[in-house]
Design goal:
Blueprint (H helix, E strand, L loop, with lengths): L8 E2 L9 H20 L2 H4 L1 H13 L4 E4 L5 H8 L4 E5 L2 H10 L4 E4 L12 E7 L10 H11 E12 L4 E7 L2 E8 L3 H10 L3 E8 L10 E7 L2
Parallel strand pairs: 2-3, 2-5, 3-4, 5-6
Antiparallel strand pairs: 1-7, 6-10, 7-8, 9-10
Helix pairs in contact: 1-5, 6-7
Keywords: Methyltransferase, Transferase
GO molecular function, one term: methyltransferase activity
Organism: Saccharothrix australiensis
Length: 225
């Protein structure tokens, strides 16, 4: 899932919520329809985003999983680049929107903290602004799960906002919600990915694009040996 845009209300830093899966699911269920309408054409304006996804598409081979796919905009973009790609998302509301919007693609409900995929079955995994809703101390387990489901030579692409703070949202798209998102340090994420067994491939950090982005954006492409 991509983080809600900066226009939503935020209460500032707070402690980690042990029920983050429930709150994240409920928040995205509430905003799914409006979220899809707002972000539907975002990739058309994102030159760097498309370039990064294109590099991933040329690196990956075999089936690809878009983890935290939301309404499926990245999934369908990757399909258009020739990948055999499916999506999984924590939010049933998001999956319902994705299935309606892109009926020819496969979308399932599931959590990145417990991927229901066999060991070594995937050629690529994309986590496009989706790990940002997982408390950072749980990232090593998530990255180990990505490593498990990838075949040797498979690639993982992770995208996120740069920083070291937590933001807590209370409103989005006219809905009252409870949602937390974490800005992350690329060097720390890179260390965790190496610890999980990945080899570094490429790291890109770009400047924020006004008016909506407030922080740099990071993209890490790594490979399972």
């Amino acid at each position: 899932m991509t983080e809600l845009p900066p226009a939503v209300s935020s209460t500032g830093p707070a402690g980690a919520d042990p029920a983050f899966l429930d709150t994240t699911r409920a928040a995205y269920d509430a905003v799914a329809v409006d979220y899809e309408a707002l972000l539907r054409d975002q990739l058309a304006r994102g030159v760097v985003d498309r370039a990064v996804l294109g590099a991933f598409a040329e690196s990956a081979s075999g089936p690809v999983l878009d983890v935290g796919c939301g309404p499926g905009r990245v999934t369908t973009h990757l399909a258009g680049l020739g990948l055999d790609v499916s999506g999984v998302d924590l939010s049933p509301g998001m999956v319902a929107v994705a299935r309606t919007r892109y009926p020819d693609l496969r979308f399932e409900v599931g959590s990145m903290t417990d991927l229901d995929h066999p060991d070594g079955g995937l050629g690529g995994v994309v986590a496009w602004y989706s790990v940002i809703h997982v408390p950072p101390h749980l990232h090593p387990g998530v990255f180990a799960g990505f490593h498990r489901v990838l075949r040797p030579g498979g690639h993982l692409l992770v995208a996120f906002q740069v920083g070291d703070e937590r933001r807590d949202f209370t409103e989005g798209y006219g809905h009252e919600i409870t949602l937390s998102a974490y800005r992350l340090r690329p060097e720390r994420v890179a260390e965790q990915l190496v610890d999980a067994g990945f080899e570094p491939h490429s790291t890109l950090v770009r400047a924020p694009e006004p008016p909506n982005e407030k922080t740099p954006q990071a993209y890490l492409l790594v490979r399972k040996p």
